[in-house]
């Protein structure tokens, strides 16, 4: 199987597997225990926190460990909104966010009566910061925006929006799940009060992630119980997964430039291969402005994407039609729907190919070859 669904999850690096295996064997103490093995485990957790903090260029006390980006998003949005409702009732997010943001703010609307504005891209798919600025109100308490879209790779104006909020009361949450480990991510530089990410997007394990938070802001805990994570998140720490996340992040940061260039080449090669024949394929890119090369969302007119995905799967290629967190549903991509409209035939034609530096040029050429064969039959 040739794996081209890295926006959904990435394979573990061998070094990550080794670090996690060693941790499972050697660091089995409970970090809250006061004996030697407990203190050893607590030290490992502190080391991981410092590693993540260095990568983000923030203080380690501002890192909260979670079970992944979905929990981190819920923690930031629910925790802040409920703790600060006296300041205002308005939340702004984009219509192209991950479901863990969209469904969370919808919950805040339905359960607690928050007024939520879902900002759509412009008709051409672009998303200037002015779209957020136009929706800001005196009672806006929270703005949430992804750094890069998981279905199209589109980079959103996180820095520009951060500047808009410098003199506004609204807290700023950035979902950096698709960019951490791929490009420099420094929450304080973009003005983020909260920033979330998940290890399995940069060759770490599933089920572990992080939330950066501005310690000056007040927010409620989401998980209650013990006093772990400075009383912000109860539960015994998932040490081996934390170790795996730290190892993967260190490797990603160390090889960031070379990895990015390799993915750019893979992206470029696939487009060249699809256009290389005397009778090249007819397709269009769902690409809107500056984008991460790690995601290529393309569509073939009058070709049903579900059927195409199945044929590619049977041929030994793993891709997707959109977010893995909406897989199994019959609903069209909410991202493309926000751009093209709910009645567009384009919603049934797209496929998402997502790369990592572990992919090879040979794999890309084989994929292009089989895709052509399938479409030309």
From TrEMBL:
Q: Which InterPro entries match?
A: Aminotrans_V_dom, Cysteine_dSase, PyrdxlP-dep_Trfase, PyrdxlP-dep_Trfase_major, PyrdxlP-dep_Trfase_small
Keywords, comma-separated and alphabetical = Iron, Iron-sulfur, Metal-binding, Pyridoxal phosphate, Transferase
List the catalysed reactions.
Answer: (sulfur carrier)-H + L-cysteine = (sulfur carrier)-SH + L-alanine
Q: Which cofactor does it need?
A: pyridoxal 5'-phosphate
Q: Show the GO MF annotations.
A: cysteine desulfurase activity; iron-sulfur cluster binding; metal ion binding
- Domain Aminotransferase class V, by residue range, is 2-367
The reply to whether Iron-sulfur figures as a keyword in the UniProt entry is: yes
Report if keyword Metal-binding is assigned: yes
Would you identify the family this protein belongs to, as annotated? Belongs to the class-V pyridoxal-phosphate-dependent aminotransferase family. NifS/IscS subfamily.
Q: Which PANTHER family match?
A: CYSTEINE DESULFURASE (PTHR11601:SF34), CYSTEINE DESULFURYLASE FAMILY MEMBER (PTHR11601)
Full protein name: Cysteine desulfurase
What is the scientific name of the source organism?
Lactococcus taiwanensis
């Amino acid at each position: 199987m040739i794996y081209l669904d890295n926006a959904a999850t990435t394979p573990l690096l061998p070094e990550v597997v080794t670090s996690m295996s060693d941790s499972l064997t050697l660091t089995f103490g409970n970090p809250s225990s006061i004996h030697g093995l407990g203190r050893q485990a607590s030290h490992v957790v502190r080391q991981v926190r410092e590693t993540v903090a260095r990568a983000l260029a923030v203080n380690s006390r501002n890192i909260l460990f979670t079970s992944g980006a979905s929990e981190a998003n819920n923690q930031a949005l629910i925790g802040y909104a409920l703790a600060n409702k006296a300041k205002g009732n308005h939340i702004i997010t984009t219509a192209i966010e991950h479901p863990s943001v969209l469904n969370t703010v919808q919950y805040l609307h339905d359960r607690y009566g928050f007024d939520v504005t879902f900002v759509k891209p412009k008709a051409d798919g672009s998303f200037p910061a002015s779209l957020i600025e136009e929706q800001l109100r005196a009672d806006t308490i929270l703005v949430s925006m992804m750094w890069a879209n998981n279905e199209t790779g589109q980079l959103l104006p996180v820095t520009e929006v951060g500047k808009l909020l410098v003199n506004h009361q609204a807290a700023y949450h950035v979902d950096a799940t698709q960019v951490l480990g791929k490009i420099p991510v420094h929450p304080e530089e973009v003005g983020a009060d909260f920033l979330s990410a998940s290890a399995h997007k940069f060759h770490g394990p599933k089920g572990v992630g992080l939330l950066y938070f501005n310690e000056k802001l007040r927010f409620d805990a989401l998980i209650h119980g013990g006093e772990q994570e400075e009383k912000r998140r109860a539960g015994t720490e998932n040490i081996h997964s934390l170790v795996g996340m730290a190892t993967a992040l260190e490797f990603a940061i160390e090889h960031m430039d070379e990895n990015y260039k390799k993915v750019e080449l893979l992206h470029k090669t696939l487009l060249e291969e699809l256009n290389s024949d005397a009778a090249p394929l007819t397709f269009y890119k769902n690409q809107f402005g500056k984008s991460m090369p790690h995601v290529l969302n393309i569509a073939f007119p009058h070709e049903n994407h579900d059927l195409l995905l199945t044929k590619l799967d049977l041929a030994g290629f793993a891709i997707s039609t959109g977010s893995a967190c909406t897989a199994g549903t019959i609903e069209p991509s909410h991202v493309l729907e926000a751009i093209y409209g709910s009645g567009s035939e384009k919603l049934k034609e797209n496929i998402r190919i997502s790369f990592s530096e572990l992919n090879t040029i040979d794999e890309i050429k084989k994929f292009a070859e089989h895709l052509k064969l399938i479409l030309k039959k």
